[in-house]
Every structure is written in C-alpha cells, then in structure tokens.
Design a protein that fits this description.
This protein has 12 helices and 16 strands. With 341 residues, the protein is an alpha/beta fold. Helix 5 packs parallel to helix 6.
C-alpha cells in the first residue's frame, strides 16, 4: 500500500486528463485516479485479464482497456496527459523497459510519466532509463526505500522509439527445469480431452497435443501476451487439436469437462510469494475434471500444496521430480471445498 499512498500524494491530475496506467491496474491508486479525472479517461494498458475484469466490473464509462503488449502497435501517439507505472506489478525488466517506451509514444507534449518503485526493484536503473529517453528526471519523494520519479515529455523533443519487442520477450518460451520434469512425468492417453492452466507460451500444452492425437487440448492463461505467444506457437506447430484462450484460471472453460489437467503455476504475485494462484488452479481443476480424471502439478519442494490437493482429490501422490521440484498427481473427486474458484 505504501506505493499507492506515495502515488496519491505526488501524481498531479487535472479534470479531463487522459491517464494511462501502465500494466499496474491492480494498484489501489487506480480508483482514486478515476475519480479525480472526472470527464477524462483512464486507459488500462494491462496484460492480466483477471485484473482487467475486476477493474471494469461496475467501472465508470471513462475507463477502457488496451492489451499492454499491443499498445504501441495499435494506439495513436501523443494522446495521453499522464502515464503511471508501479514497478511492483511488472514481471521482469523487459516489461518495465517496454512500459517506458509506451509512455514516450503515448504522452502528449508536456505530458508526465510517474514511476514508483523500490531500490531492490530497480528504481534507480529505471530512473536512468527515464532520463535517457526523456532527457530529464525528478525524484518527487523517497519513503522507506520507495521512490516516485517523474519525467516530462518536452514539446520540442523528438523521441526515437525502438521497434516493438517480440512476444518471447514477455512470454518466455524456454523449457525450464520444472516444466521438463512435468513433461517427463505426464502420462497422456491418445483420446484425452486436456487442459493446461497457466499455459505461458504453450510448451506443455503443445507436448500434450502431440500425444493425444485423437483428443483435444485447451490452453488458458490470464496473461494476454502469454495467450498471444501460445497462439503463435500453435500456428507454427501445424497442430489442429489445440487452442489457447485468455482466462482467469478455469473460468473460460467452466462448462466443459476434461480427462487430463496440467499446470506449472506461478508462485509470485505483485512481487510477493503466494500459494493462492496455485490453490485457485487446484480447485479449478477439481471442478472441470471428469470422474477418474488426472491432475498434474509441478511445484518447488518448499511449497505446501498437498493439503489443498488432498481436500480436492480422492488420491494424491508424488510421481516425479528431483531435489528442487516435485510432480504431484491428483485423481478426480469433487468436494464442497473446491466449489469456489
């Protein structure tokens, strides 16, 4: 909450401003900004579909959404008065760097970019990049290791923007160790109807699709850029028994049932370690699995997912892994504890 409080005390709006929120729609600062701009507009350049849906629910008509990774390609330049980014919500440096260039593209002459973040999140390096892009930088406040920085886009300034980055900059398509172990442990039937929750760039789902030649695979992810990367991977693979959809967990496929569900869930959200995402995926898998269905999950050994798995599935066992990772298999049983996703 400190970052939001610092933004409240430093970001300056005028009634009617056009405001751009750079992949930070989850920040509690956003509703305040919406009220302050009055007849202006709040544009959420946001990647996470779950966050977007929460913000747009009962939102005023002056709030709109644009996928973060497509902003430069699809949105006009020089239409925004104020841009705001919180480093806490950026998954990696590539997202921060792209966000700075989105601001340079989007801001009107004399528009301002505000960035809040901690030293350990790289705010000092971000400040150097802001100065390199805009030619100026102010430190508006420092509190408990957090800083709010501001750059102004001068009217006479011509900013050269790099080409938009490839999708793989945002959605890593490299085979990590946990995913490799999960793929090795999977037992796929040729007729499986399968679901990959939190699919990323699609490596697991594509592997399953090659095995289930008479079945079908659906991949879902809350990240719009991950879904775009997975859809591109599907096109490149030539496979016709697979699709990728944006979804908050399993919400997009609640009306369907699957023989096999797989996931390599994230365990960080907003820079904080959490088990809530994986637990949501576990409960969702229990909802959509057929009787005798199988659910595979890979996790770091220190993450304690077993209690939720045991509450949701008839049988839970470890079927693979190494000293760092474990592959857990749950066999289908739906219980009341899993009814809420």
């Amino acid at each position: 909450m400190l970052q939001s409080d610092l933004l409240r005390s430093t970001v300056q709006f005028a009634a009617g401003d056009q405001v751009l929120i750079l992949n930070s729609a989850a920040d509690p600062f956003v509703p305040l900004a919406t009220r302050q701009v009055g007849t202006g507009t709040i544009v959420l350049a946001e990647d996470n579909i779950a966050t977007v849906q929460q913000r747009l629910q009962n939102a005023p008509s002056n709030m709109q959404h644009v996928p973060f990774h497509t902003y430069i390609l699809q949105q006009p330049a020089a239409t925004i008065d104020v841009a705001v980014m919180n480093l806490l919500y950026q998954p990696a440096n590539a997202w921060v760097h792209y966000g700075l260039h989105v601001a340079a593209h989007a801001l009107r002459p004399d528009g301002y970019l505000y960035v809040v973040g901690a030293k350990e999140r790289g705010i000092l390096t971000v400040g150097k990049r802001m100065h390199d892009i805009f030619g100026n930088l102010e430190t508006l406040t420092i509190s408990k290791g957090q800083r709010v920085l501001r750059s102004r886009k001068h009217a006479s300034q011509q900013i050269a923007l790099p080409p938009p980055p490839d999708l793989t900059v945002f959605a890593d398509n490299q085979l990590d160790e946990g995913t490799r172990l999960l793929v090795e442990a999977l037992k796929v039937h040729t007729t499986d109807e399968a679901l990959d929750i939190g699919c990323g760039a699609g490596f697991i789902g594509l592997h399953v699709a090659r095995q289930t030649s008479k079945g079908y695979v659906t991949m879902v992810d809350a990240s719009l850029v991950a879904v775009a990367a997975a859809q591109r991977a599907i096109q490149q693979s030539g496979l016709t028994n697979i699709q990728a959809l944006p979804s908050d967990g399993v919400r997009a496929v609640l009306d369907r049932r699957f023989d096999l569900v797989v996931t390599n869930p994230p365990f960080h959200q907003g820079g904080i370690q959490t088990t809530s995402i994986a637990e949501q995926f576990i409960r969702g898998a229990a909802q959509v699995l057929r009787s005798h269905g199988r659910f595979y999950l890979v996790a770091n050994r220190f993450l304690k997912y077993e209690p939720v798995l045991q509450a949701c599935f008839k049988q839970v066992e470890e079927v693979g892994g190494n000293t760092r990772y474990k592959i857990l298999l749950g066999r289908s049983r739906q219980r009341h504890i899993c009814d809420t996703i």
